[in-house]
Batch of 4 targets.
Target 1
Amino acid sequence: MSIKPAFELGIWNAWIFMIWFFLPPIISICGSKGKATSKRLAVSVPIKHEKLLNVISTATFVAGFIYSIFLLLQLGKVWFFMGLVIFLIALVISLSATFFVRTTPTDKPFTKGPYRYSRHPLYVAETLIFLSIAIAGVSWVFLLLIVIMQSFHIIYAPAEEQYCLKRYGKDYREYMNRTPRWIGIPKSEKSY
């Protein structure tokens, strides 16, 4: 890992990992049986300075995507294989979360699949994808982007949870009590 980021255009660059960010939303929107799923995913959660945060968050993602086009993956090295394993885990989390978003009735909160282990599995998957790129491309720039993106997750997650509490009430409160915000082992559903 050098101080000066490498810029080398190539087919085997980190963009291959970044392109997967677009797959789950496409699956959700194209595969939905109506507008309910796409509307459900496009809910705007009121956050102080929301427009500014959205601009900065989007700019960070776009900067990461553009840089990934020029970031050479360390093919054949242990870094690449470590990053690939993390990427595949993130991809499974992301695709399965997307599946449960599509199959959960609109009047119920998402509580199955990866949502059983995290209230925000898509944020976890996003962080893991950036981490996989940082490792597979040996890039301090992507490590910095992880810190920036995680800052947004920390701001957005509580606001989304407040929205879900208003929308789903007691069901979501019970879900929050047994499921960690980021990742972990869910508490028993039994009440004593």
Target 2
Amino acid sequence: MNTRNTAVRPRIPAQRRGGDNRPPARQPAGTGQAEKLLAALAANRKNEEARERIRGELVELYTPLVRREARRYRNRGEPMDDLYQVGMLGLMKAIRGFDPSYGKPFVAYLLPMVTGELKRHFRDTTWAVRVPRVHQEKRGELNRVIAEFTQRHGRTPTTKELAKAMDMEVEAMIELIDASSAYSALSLDMPFGEADDESALGDTLGGVDGDLENVVDRESLKDALDRLPERERRVVLLRFFGNKTQSEIAAAVGLSQMHVSRLLSQTLRQLRRELLV
């Protein structure tokens, strides 16, 4: 009989590439519940009341994760409440944009959205051009109203809804939004992405830009959109003005989701070329 010690030694995980031996990010408690809620959200596309309730449950479930990510930026001079609101905006965008058919867990989609919103918040730290003081003072209130509306309704507000919430005329709201866009001027040569990524901001032009859905002055796009073929124009309108997912668009126009993704990429590149001329 073999009497040697057969105790199994603890397994030492292999070191990550680049010397980063940190443990992988923990999945939040209730991940299984979240996946069920996301599946229910996709299954209730025509039941807005049910979708609103499901979004609320997802927000409650992932709020601790957003708070944790926001706390990582707490020593940079910004109020913690502001950072939390910025992170919640990323959460709502993730809930609205996630598609279970991608085959990836929700948290892998959520974290880049939340950290991206926080990084964008800190990147916008100086006014690039002279802006009336009243607009500078109202920018913080505008951001707060957008974040609260998005958290409550699961979508970004329209210009009219923003004007009503801030007790302003629509024209004055458009001026405020235009002024807020002057908050920073970015060089096309500035680093963009993670610390070990050598890409510059200019390298990203031509890719699918999620911020296009936030364009307020839609009239500036009208002529370019009118010149698009009917199918391409419909896909763009459904995605950026109808807040539809690629899966929903594919079902509406009778194409595969992959085909819709290619059409969006090609059409957005064409629109950028026309708008930058």
Target 3
Amino acid sequence: MNSNQAPEAKSKILIVDDKPDNLRLLSKMLSTHGYEVRRAINASTALMGVQAAPPDLILLDIRMPDMNGYELCQKLKAIEQTREIPVIFLSALNEVLDKVKAFEAGCADYITKPFQIQEVLARVENQLTIRRQKALLQKEICERKQVEKALRQSKTLLNQTVRITKVGGWSIDLVSKECFWTQEVSQILELSVEFQLNDSMESIDFYLSFYSPTAQPVIREAFRNALEDGKPYDLELPLITAKNNHRWVRTTAQTVYEQGNSLRVFGNIMDITERKQAEEALRLSEARERDRATQLELTLSELKRTQARLIQTEKMSSLGQMVAGVAHEINNPVSFIYGNLIPASEYASDLIRLIETYQQTYPNPTPEIKDLIEEIDLDFLMEDWQKLMNSMQVGAERIHEIVLSLRNFSRLNQLEKEYIDIHDGLDKTLLILNHRLRAVGDRSKIEVIKNYGELPPVNCYNSQLNQVFMNLLNNAIDALSESNDNDSNSRSNNQRESITSKIWIHTEKISEQLLTEKLKTEEKVVIRIIDNGPGMNEQVQKQIFDPFFTTKPVGRGTGLGLAISYQIIVEKHGGHLSCVSAPGQGTEFIVEIPIGNT
């Protein structure tokens, strides 16, 4: 290692938090891993410090007394000097809306407390890598501009030099056959004193012999045409000097006529080696810049995809925790209700038997009891109580089914595949989305038509597949709702009622012949989810699986649902996800999954 080489500068990180304990913990953690850490106890101090000495990255809390993290982030993004500094929010707020607000304020990433040290370090280094890549790209663009500027200056200087410097020249008298060569020609050819060009025609062949073998046929034919036919030429050709140096020259020739007769041919030769070298250097530089730009574009695209996966993973993790918590909280009271229904029914039966026995024993009740019997309508009560108990039991079982579906959906961190019933996953997803299928305002109820085929158990990640079903069905419902909104102003009530919003779900098992070394049959399940919504044009279909692409209004879609669904089906399950649609013809999503994929 070169002892004189300067060590790589540490990345500077500013931590902004109103809790001293948090500042000490994060500062110690980052300093231990080689970062230069600065701390600020509030947003105002941080803002002044960033403007005075901008850091490479900012770790920012949200809840602070004088100015919250959202406001500070917005101020930083509004200042040109600090706009490009990546900001990572580090907060205990884990609601999806809090995170959306953070990204709208301009943050690069979001970490929820309590955090894992390795996660913080990984995300910090990820953002610093992105910042370094951007800086490298800007530096290379600047260097390229400098090279182009230098080349332009060189060309300008070269053109000026051509005008003001002596250029090697020659002339041939076509009548006397005498030749004349300037001293500069000998200098360009690097001829010694004893080998100077003379005025005889033999000197022409001597002069032409210095051109490289590849240029010999070109220059000799051009020279002959100039002498015999008076045709001018202007060529750039390589030659080899008397000292064996390779050079490029520009050589020209022009015939002078008098009364229609050619009298003399004038020509010149100019060394353009430096210009050619500069052009070649620029060509190579442009090629390198194109390669670097392509590589950086690929790197940034991969970083963008990685960021999309991180955002979606964080969002789904938070959603899974929330769903699991809600399911648990609902399940406890429902279990109490469901468990007490049978004893309550038995107690009520005993009381009714007691009343019936009492009526048989004392058929003539007192006036007070008789009035009370009429007031409470005892006959109806004895007849209806069992119906009430049955209705309560059905309701409790329904809630229990929904809780089970929510628990199943919340298992988003499943590590191993298992054989599952595809139809069960579809039904549970529909159960969760049941509230969105009901009639709302002018929109009629969405009818779901199931056409389930005979399917064997499929080896897959159950929760991830349910997430795909959730995304596809949600998109179908959104499309139908949008179609209804667009039609509400142009159709009458009777027309709207005659058009029913529908979603069809078809499943089947198919077999395909694979072209391998041996003929092989692959079995797969195919799930088709079809809606009669407005459909999509071809341009939209080409982009629907791209991260962050969405046709929904701002605030109603992140553009990650279909991108993540594509990744789950194609990368995780070795399957295929495609879309067939046309404007006004509805949309069909086709999911294909190998039955025994590993």
Target 4
Amino acid sequence: MEFKTFLFYAFSVVLVIAALRVITARNPVHAALFLVLSFFSAAGIWMLLKAEFLSIVLVLVYVGAVMVLFLFVVMMLDINLDKMREGFWGYFPLAATVGTVIVLEMAAVIFHGFQGSESDVPAISANIGNTKELGKLIYTEYVYAFEIAAVILLVAIVAAVALTLRRRKDSKYFSPSAAVKVKSSDRVRIVKMKSEAKVDPVAPANLAVTPAATPPAAPAAPQK
């Protein structure tokens, strides 16, 4: 077995195990970390298949941006795991049905989509890079699909920014344009107040305490 084949099977096994742990891990942080491991394994497989551009994009975009943000949100939020697990098995039949359909579709593509792969493939020049050919395909044959995807991504970004611009009653904000137009006279106002009449100090009260009158002593009881 060649070393390249060994790496392919090693990355594949790690990818399958990590993907299973993503859906079976009870802790959301652990599930996110296993998803990061599965992305790295998929990137390694793409690198072995000489798809270096897709491999680098997968690591930079999904692992470096999306998953880091997801981990930050999961670790900052107070998630009640017990409440999330309530009624989990009620959705199991639907999840099993959807998973079975996906597996059958992938099996049909794998077994029937590569029947003509044994035909002779024209030799490709070593000077042509994978990234260069991918760029040509994107901006020639798939230019409309690429532009539509870019517009959808732009709409999602604008919507995310619009959701953060909601004004709340208890939020404090100011208008920069209004702050620039303010003059010094608008910031400070000098008020002239009339001087108040002087009041004579109050004489101290006589704090001498007179002793209280003691009541007369009661007569002593006669002795028997």
